[in-house]
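Researcher: Quick test of sequence recovery. Tokens follow.
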């Protein structure tokens, strides 16, 4: 499977799209380069949430490898997103070209770094890595496969996926999530949320016995995308997704002016729920303007 990214990741094809080597090579030849920014953290989150799922072709019993190819320093937190993948047993290889930050490549890649980090000065030099990288990848897959327990169930659906996400008690700064757990309880849940119009994704990890969560410190009057992923020892189940908007902050109402004098006025209003202070601005109206 392959995804390109800049400020917004884009899936070019899924793991299950092609079934032969020739089809994949033809797809690579027809690939159009996507220029733009370098939001590597967002791209890694996209791969986890969109491309490494059973309905995208990720087999539960197969090893999961991510090969990151980048020519710049990430503009968001790539280290945190990469750690999430590595915590799930997904191995990351980092390949830098031109202006890539080698320190960042080492933070993103899995151990041992001498096998998983590569850096070249220009794109044509990537061809020199193919032979070695292919050998390392195949060896790592065999090593990991020999260590894994092979009795992991292959079926998905209700056995591995939660259902019925409900979002309630929405305020200007918080919302409450509940969901129904899958038939097979996960080890943990990973909850990812971010504003739909752009923003750095935030995440919370809770125990697999939990089926509700309060999200707080949100931005008022903002639409949020929320995803809940069940995490097992060697796989991430299908996620639940929801969309909801936080409420706008309450406003004071019914402003009244009284007790006018030559140099003072008295103001009164109905309180805004949740307000701890008020800022009152006063300025003289321009000549000829209405008071």
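Model:
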């Amino acid at each position: 499977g392959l995804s390109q990214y800049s400020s917004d990741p884009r899936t070019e094809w899924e793991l299950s799209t092609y079934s032969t080597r020739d089809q994949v090579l033809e797809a690579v030849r027809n690939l159009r380069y996507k220029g733009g920014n370098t939001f590597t953290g967002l791209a890694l989150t996209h791969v986890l949430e969109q491309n490494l799922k059973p309905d995208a072709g990720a087999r539960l019993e197969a090893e999961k490898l991510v090969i990151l190819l980048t020519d710049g320093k990430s503009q968001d937190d790539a280290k945190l997103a990469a750690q999430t993948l590595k915590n799930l047993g997904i191995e990351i290889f980092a390949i830098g070209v031109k202006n890539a930050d080698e320190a960042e490549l080492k933070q993103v890649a899995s151990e041992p770094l001498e096998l998983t980090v590569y850096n070249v000065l220009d794109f044509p030099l990537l061809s020199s890595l193919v032979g070695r990288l292919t050998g390392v990848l195949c060896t790592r897959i065999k090593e990991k496969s020999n260590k894994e327990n092979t009795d992991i169930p292959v079926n998905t659906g209700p056995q591995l996926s939660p259902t019925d996400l409900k979002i309630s008690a929405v305020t200007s700064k918080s919302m409450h999530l509940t969901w129904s757990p899958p038939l097979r309880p996960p080890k943990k849940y990973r909850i990812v949320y971010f504003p739909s119009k752009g923003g750095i994704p935030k995440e919370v990890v809770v125990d697999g016995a939990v089926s509700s969560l309060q999200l707080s410190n949100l931005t008022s009057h903002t639409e949020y995308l929320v995803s809940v992923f069940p995490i097992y020892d060697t796989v991430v189940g299908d996620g639940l997704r929801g969309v909801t908007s936080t409420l706008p902050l309450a406003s004071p109402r019914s402003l009244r002016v009284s007790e006018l004098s030559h140099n003072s006025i008295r103001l009164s209003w109905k309180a805004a729920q949740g307000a701890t202070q008020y800022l009152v601005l006063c300025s003289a109206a321009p000549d000829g303007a209405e008071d």
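Residues 130-147 form the longest helix (18 residues).
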